[in-house]
Structures are given as structure tokens and as C-alpha cells.
Design a protein that fits this description.
Helix content: over 70%
Number of helices: 24
Strand order of the largest sheet: 1-2
Number of strands: 8
CATH class: Mainly Alpha
Structural class: mainly alpha
Length: 548
């Protein structure tokens, strides 16, 4: 074991040296060398199809078309299943999933192991590891982040207030996609002898397509998904998050120098390491506390601003609806605004990427559809609630049409697939700055609170994506402790690298992997969605039987 660890740290040492040398420009040289590859990969994933005057990324068409189909096929679950989802996540139907103790088990009070009553461990391990709420919190923590803070600002700056309407629409139909993929995640999961759950698209692609007679294709798609997910966990789900946290902290406290990022990265790595070593149960325990807290801070601040501008709420929604169908001149027309809104929403809630199905697969339940209905709340929280509140704050900031003109302009140049805008003098500015200015205009000093929120968002995203990546890693390299340790060490290494270096190309490359997950995942969903209807009937039937 000692030789094994020594070999790992020998491999890590050059990377740490690289991080320390970032201040001297080594990271810039590596970045420049890798940028052509990253640009090609991003362009490949975001391959466009001409629709009239517009070039629409095929991945966005696939996501929106799939979500629309599932919404119609399952009879608008975002509305018809919403009440059921709320009742399920609050435990109203837990009695149909009760875990009965095995015969002869000692059930004396106080006899517990890691929060489990000894007499129920065996039975429970066959059905999952975390509660409905914990699974939802873990999945939400992986999606709620800069997409809600900076991404909304980008959408509005590029597409005007009307982009908000299409973001909401995309979030509502995306609820159906989450319902499908997370139901399948539980249905086709594997459970080890020790009760550890292994689930996600890797398993429903391989096992589900095998049932349909496409075993070979299923294995290829599952392996492809796992490879892309590991890459996404190191980059967009990790290095990018630690980089943004380091940038915000350094900016807030006026810190400079390459060593600053290294120190921040090391501290983040230690904190992340403490959590992820404990596995999904510890991750779930942290996320069920941190997600409501961080979302609560952000939503509360947004509500303060909304109530402070209560007289303008009607006008703001008027601009949203008017801009959705009759966009202002220069904003690319109706289709342009629609594309911007859909694209930002798709990037924000990741419905269709399949990543959330990995977290939801660990839930304690006998009925896969019970977690499917819980999962449909995720795009609602992420996009419909939090993104809409952010949009209202930004619209209030420019309600008279003057503030945006002095900083950004509706229809300003920028990239709707990133969180970067160009201000009026042509310089590049992060979309988070526009959101920060909008909040500061009503709550002076909110930039400090926003920094805390960004750090919490980054931290929670990292621990969630560590689980996604680990599950994919285990699918590829086996479920032993050695494979587990190698992945976690590599993941923590990327926390430090992300904070200490500015590797835009690496982030661009790995972030595109998150979108690339859509292709193998959506193929599986189109083949397997009838299974979801069967599981939904079983769950509804069990609820009805329990009431009789």
C-alpha cells in the first residue's frame, strides 16, 4: 500500500510544481498549446444546424425536442405530478417503503452504525443509501451555481428580458426529462453486497438496451458516457468551480499572486476531501444542509429586491412576455431570443445530461418512479424559481433602460454558451459582475454575500460531481478500494490546479463534456421511456393500495 501511495504522489508532484509555477506563465503556455484542441472539441459538441437565418446547436435541439416529447407523452408531469412530487419528498408515502428488520435482529434504542439501526441494515442496503430529500439536495447542488448567477445575466444581456420567458419554458419541459432519466437510474441500478449503490446512465444504457436486444450498442454508449462524465467531473464540475471560488475570494479581499490561488485551492481540497471520503451518505448529509442554506440566502436577497421594487413587478413581467414574442430591434428576432433562453436553461439545469440520475439512483426506495417524480422538482428549483428571481433583479436594475446602457446593452456581444459578456468599451466582463451590480443597487455590500454564495455553490457542485465522476470511474475501472482512492486523489489534485492556474482551454474542453453527455444519454431515454410508464403505474398503484 505504501509503495502504491508513493507512486501516486510521485505522479502528482509534477502537477503541484506546475500549479506553483502558474504565476510565471507556464499555465499560459500550456493553455495556448491546448486551446486548438479545446476549441475543436467545443465546436464539435456545439455543432450547429441552420434554421432560417440562425445556426442552432444540435445539442440544444435534441434537448428541447426530447423534453417536449416526454412532456406530451407523460401528460405534462411538471403540472400533473407536481403535488405528488412534493408529497413524496416530504415523506408522505414513506410507509410503502418501510424497511422491516430481519428476524431476530436486535432493535434496542441506541444500537446504530453510521445512522442505521443495526436490525435494519441488511434490508435497507438492498434498497438504497439516502432519503428522497437528500438525493434531491445532492442533485440540486450539482446544478445550482454560476449558471443561475452569471448565466441569467448573459441570457438577458444577449436576448433581452424575453429570454427569461423561454428559460422558464425550457425549465418546465425539462422537468419531464429529469423524471424519465432518474426513474431509469433507480430501476437499473446495481447494489453491492455491502449496500453500496451504483447507478446512473452507465447502468440503464448497458442493462436497459440489453433488454431491448442492443447489448453491444448499450455497452459502447455506457462506456462513452462514463468517460465523458469523468472528464466533466475533473473540469466543469471541479477545476472551473475552484477557479471561480478562488477568483471571487481573491477579488473580494484584494489578494494577488500565484501562491494565493494555490493556498485557496489547498484549503478547498482539504474541505472537499473530508466530505467525499465518506461517500454518498456523507455527501448527502452535507448537501441537505448546505443547499437549503445557500439557496435560502440567495432567494431571500432576491425577494428583498423584488419587494423593494414591488411597483415594477407588473412592468417587469410585461417586458418578459412582450420581449418573448416581440423582441426589441437588434436582438436577433423571436427565434434568436428563444434560442438564447433555451440554451442558457439547458446549460443551467442539465436536464438530459443524465448526471443527476447518478445521485438519485442512491435513494432508499422500492419504487423507481418515486424518485423520478422527486427529480422533476430539480429544474423547477434551479430554473423556474432561482433563475427567474435572478432575472427579475437584473430587469429591475435596468427598468428605465439606463443602467444596462452604461455597462452592458441588450443584445450586447457575447457568448451564450459561456458566462462572459462584452461591456460597452469592448472589454470582457463576467456575467456575475452584472448580477452583482444589480443586487448592490438595492442591497449595498451584497457583493460580499454573493461571494459567499458563489463559494458555497462551487463547494457543493464539487462534492456532487465528485460522486458523479467516481461512479463513472468505478464503472470503467472496477469497484475496488484502489480505484476509489486513485480517483479521489486525482479529483482533489484538480481542485488545487483549478484554483492555482488559469487553464481556459482545459475548462472549455471538459465543460463541453457535460453537454456531450446528452448524446449517449438521450439515445437511452428514447429507447427506454416506456419502462418509465410501467414504473409510474406501479408507484401510483402502491399509493392507492396503502390508502385502502
Amino acid at each position: 500500500m505504501k509503495k502504491y501511495l508513493l507512486s501516486i504522489f510521485t505522479l502528482i508532484l509534477p502537477f503541484l510544481t506546475f500549479a506553483q509555477e502558474a504565476e510565471k506563465g507556464l499555465d499560459e503556455r500550456v493553455n495556448d498549446a491546448f486551446m486548438p484542441v479545446a476549441t475543436w472539441w467545443e465546436g464539435f459538441v456545439l455543432t450547429t444546424i441552420p434554421i432560417g437565418e440562425y445556426n442552432v446547436p444540435f445539442v440544444v435541439i435534441l434537448l428541447v425536442a426530447g423534453a417536449t416529447f416526454f412532456t406530451v407523452y407523460f401528460r405534462f408531469p411538471s403540472v400533473t405530478k407536481f403535488g405528488l412530487a412534493i408529497n413524496t419528498v416530504r415523506g408522505k408515502y414513506d410507509e410503502i417503503d418501510h424497511h422491516e428488520a430481519i428476524d431476530g435482529a436486535d432493535d434496542e434504542a441506541g444500537l446504530a452504525v453510521d445512522g442505521d439501526v443495526i436490525g435494519t441494515i441488511k434490508d435497507e442496503s438492498q434498497e438504497g443509501e439516502v432519503s428522497h430529500f437528500q438525493a434531491l439536495a445532492t442533485a440540486v447542488s450539482g446544478t445550482v451555481g454560476l449558471g443561475n448567477i452569471a448565466g441569467v445575466a448573459v441570457a438577458i444581456a444577449l436576448g433581452g428580458p424575453g429570454a427569461t420567458f423561454w428559460m422558464i419554458v425550457c425549465g418546465l419541459i425539462g422537468m419531464a426529462t429529469k423524471f424519465v432519466e432518474c426513474t431509469l437510474g433507480v430501476k437499473y441500478r446495481d447494489v453491492g453486497d455491502d449496500g453500496t449503490v451504483y447507478g446512473g446512465p452507465m447502468y440503464y444504457l448497458s442493462k436497459g438496451l440489453k433488454e431491448r436486444g442492443f447489448a453491444g450498442i448499450g455497452k459502447v454508449l455506457a462506456a462513452l458516457f462514463a468517460i465523458l462524465c469523468v472528464g466533466a467531473s475533473f473540469g466543469g464540475g471541479n477545476a472551473f468551480q475552484s477557479n471561480q471560488a478562488a477568483v471571487q475570494l481573491s477579488s473580494l479581499f484584494g489578494l494577488q499572486g500565484g501562491a494565493t490561488g494555490l493556498i485557496i485551492g489547498f484549503i478547498l481540497a482539504v474541505l472537499v476531501g473530508i466530505v467525499i471520503i465518506g461517500g454518498i451518505k456523507r455527501i448527502a448529509k452535507i448537501t441537505e444542509k448546505i443547499v437549503p442554506f445557500m439557496a435560502g440566502i440567495y432567494v431571500l436577497a432576491a425577494l428583498v429586491i423584488i419587494f423593494a421594487n414591488i411597483n415594477y413587478v407588473g412592468k417587469a413581467f410585461g417586458l418578459i412576455f412582450e420581449g418573448a414574442f416581440t423582441p426589441m430591434a437588434g436582438l436577433g428576432g423571436l427565434v434568436g431570443v428563444l434560442i438564447v433562453g433555451f440554451q442558457r436553461a439547458a446549460f443551467s439545469n442539465e436536464a438530459g445530461a443524465g448526471s443527476a440520475a447518478i445521485a438519485h439512483s442512491a435513494v432508499k426506495t422500492k419504487y423507481p418512479a418515486s424518485e423520478g417524480v422527486v427529480a422533476l422538482l430539480e429544474p423547477f428549483i434551479d430554473t423556474v424559481v432561482i433563475c427567474t428571481m435572478t432575472a427579475l433583479v437584473i430587469i429591475f436594475f435596468n427598468i428605465d433602460g439606463t443602467n444596462m446602457q452604461s455597462v452592458f446593452q441588450y443584445g450586447a456581444a457575447g457568448d451564450s454558451s459561456s458566462s462572459v459578456l462584452l461591456n460597452v468599451d469592448g472589454s470582457s466582463v463576467g456575467g456575475v459582475d452584472l448580477t452583482s451590480m444589480a443586487f448592490d443597487s438595492v442591497i449595498p455590500g451584497f457583493s460580499y454575500i454573493l461571494t459567499i454564495a458563489i463559494v458555497l455553490f462551487a463547494f457543493s457542485t464539487m462534492i456532487s460531481w465528485s460522486y458523479y465522476g467516481l461512479q463513472s470511474w468505478k464503472y470503467l475501472f472496477g469497484k475496488g478500494k484502489r480505484a476509489d482512492m486513485v480517483y479521489k486523489i486525482l479529483f482533489l489534485l484538480f481542485v488545487i490546479i483549478g484554483a492555482a492556474a488559469t487553464l481556459d482551454a482545459v475548462i472549455k474542453f471538459s465543460d463541453a463534456m457535460i453537454l456531450a453527455l446528452v448524446f449517449p444519454n438521450m439515445i437511452g431515454l428514447f429507447f427506454l421511456f416506456p419502462k418509465v410508464r410501467e414504473e409510474m403505474s406501479k408507484y401510483v398503484g402502491a399509493i392507492k393500495s396503502s390508502k385502502e
